[in-house]
Specification:
This protein is of the alpha/beta class and about 450 residues long. The chain is built from eleven helices and 17 strands.
């Protein structure tokens, strides 16, 4: 799996250098603590500790702007208590003493944040007259900083009030195409991006189509995530409309106290997908470990889940034991080139299964015919090998009905290229069991 993200100046690995990463601590050193690459790597490894992971980082765009938010403390305290601040899914906690001044509380909160280099923000107190205002600045410039949520819980501490201005005004991501150009010649089954905007996803779509095409044949799928309003998410998925890109969606609103960033959710989703070796097996109910569960008020109704599934979005729900799990993994592909509804490549397992079939056939041909002469005897031999591959894939429940479709397996010499052999390979991929319908008849 490949993660594309951003580094900070504290990272020891330069930008645009693909790097194998095996732990959270390595990512912290390589890309800087609290950077997008660090947070995404941590989320991925939590979800799948045995992940084969490569990370490529970009520097912030020179024209980029960091997201900024504020925490304003008013007081003084007339009683002791505790202030708990949640920055994304991470907790910062301080004690408040009786009679503590508002500036002292802000200073204590800053000091505690400074002890947590893995946070995605830095903190600074205001100047004279504004010492009670704590300004939070995203460590990485760009749009992702706007997705950092800041929530608080104030326990007791009479006299103290807290006002949070959300993170905002982050702008201008680095050029995603620069990172993808570096890894163009390598094969990654899954590419995870922190960017969930139309322009960057169009870049990812172009990259995946190029490396997965008949010339390059290094296929893969892309993953991004969102936590915004349902209408916003479905609108974007319709604009992406790619059989190779999946949107994981777990809704967070102000009702949910602890919220992961979308980039962390995308990394966890990609890691769980990488865990499943069978390309045709559905990912339903698999847990995204380390991702915070949405509050009851934010959870999807069945009607909302159906709406998402009919609009190219993969819902992430909360299951028993407050586990965050996949409802169904689908691609954003909904319409063909003519704008007509098309469910052929709806499930992400479909395109991954077709990629698997192509890989199996290609490897068999390469092994059996590395220095083969092309004569009239060659097509039947090649056809027999391809049919054998399909039959073995049928045993693995990757494809089905091979015998019924074998007449459609055609291998013939090209009419224009004397050195070329063409094959038409029918692949009836095994679908997932996603819907069960039954009727119960009452017997008296």
């Amino acid at each position: 799996m490949l993660i594309v993200g951003q580094r900070t100046s504290a990272g020891t690995v330069a930008e645009k250098v693909p790097t194998l990463v095996f732990s959270d601590k390595e990512a912290e050193v390589y890309f800087g603590p609290g950077s997008l690459c660090h947070l995404m790597t941590r989320a991925a490894i939590r979800a799948n500790p045995y992940l084969d992971l490569t990370v490529i980082a970009l520097d912030d765009a020179s024209a980029g702007q960091p997201a900024v938010g504020t925490v304003t403390i008013d007081g003084p305290a007339t009683g002791s208590g505790v202030l708990t601040l949640y920055v994304g899914a991470q907790k910062v906690e301080i004690a408040i003493a009786t009679t503590a001044a508002k500036a002292a509380v802000a200073a204590a909160l800053k000091a505690e944040i400074d002890k947590r280099p893995d946070l995605p923000v830095t903190a600074a107190v205001g100047g004279e007259g504004n010492e009670h205002i704590l300004t939070l600045t995203a460590k990485n410039k760009g749009l992702c900083g706007n997705d950092i949520t800041v929530r608080y819980v104030l326990t007791n501490a009479a006299g103290i009030t807290v006002t949070v201005a959300p993170m905002a005004n982050g702008a201008t991501n680095p050029t995603l195409a620069d990172a993808l150009a570096v890894v163009f010649g390598e094969k990654y089954d899954i590419t995870v991006t922190p960017y969930n905007n139309q322009a960057d996803l169009a870049t990812l779509k172009t990259h995946l189509d190029s490396v997965s095409g008949p010339m390059e044949q290094r296929p893969g799928v892309g993953v991004y995530a969102m936590t915004a309003a349902l209408a916003t998410v479905t609108t974007l998925s319709g604009l992406v409309n790619s059989a190779r890109i999946l949107c994981a969606y777990h809704r967070y609103t102000a009702a949910t106290l602890i919220q992961n960033m979308p980039c962390e959710m995308a990394a966890a989703m990609g890691a769980v997908m990488a865990w499943e070796e069978d390309p045709a097996r559905p990912l339903n109910t698999l847990e995204l470990k380390g991702i915070a569960a949405a509050s009851i008020a934010d959870r999807f109704s069945r009607t909302e889940q159906e709406t998402l599934l009919h609009n190219g979005v993969s819902p992430i729900e909360v299951g028993p034991g407050e586990t965050v799990q996949i409802v169904r993994a689908i691609s954003t592909y909904m319409k063909d080139a003519q704008g007509i509804d098309d469910v052929a490549l709806l499930d992400i397992t479909t395109i991954r299964t077709l990629d698997y079939v192509r890989k199996a056939v290609r490897e068999r041909i390469s092994l059996r015919f590395p220095r083969e002469k092309l004569s009239s005897k060659t097509p039947p031999k090649v056809r027999a090998e391809i049919l054998d591959v399909l039959l073995k894939l049928e045993e693995l429940e990757i494809v089905e009905e091979v015998e019924a479709n074998k007449d459609g397996l055609i291998v013939e010499r090209d009419l224009q290229d004397a050195n070329r052999l063409n094959a038409r390979i029918p692949a009836d991929v095994v679908n997932g069991l996603h819907v069960f319908a039954g009727r119960i008849d009452l017997l008296l």
